[in-house]
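User: Could you go from structure to sequence for me? I need the amino acid at each position, not a summary. Structure tokens:
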């Protein structure tokens, strides 16, 4: 059986380049609606480069934190992929 963390990583790995999902959307798609904060914690601690955690954003459209360079770097990566703010 997959853990919640495994399900979250799998959902995030499927977010296409140039697209984003909110922490809440990822939680729902991972089978745990209401676990947005837990998704945030998992992404905060994610250093697996196969998991594009920069594509997970806040419900209000802001980019939120990024453990590999901060919000400015996260926004830059998303813009390079074609995401518009």
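Assistant: Here is the amino acid at each position, in order:
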């Amino acid at each position: 059986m997959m853990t919640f963390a495994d399900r979250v990583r799998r959902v995030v790995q499927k977010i296409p380049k140039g697209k984003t999902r909110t922490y809440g959307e990822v939680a729902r798609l991972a089978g745990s609606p209401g676990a947005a904060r837990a998704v945030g914690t998992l992404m905060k601690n994610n250093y697996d480069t196969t998991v594009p955690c920069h594509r997970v954003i806040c419900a209000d459209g802001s980019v939120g934190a990024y453990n590999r360079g901060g919000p400015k770097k996260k926004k830059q990566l998303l813009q390079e992929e074609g995401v518009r703010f």
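One structural detail worth keeping in mind: The chain has one domain: 4-80.
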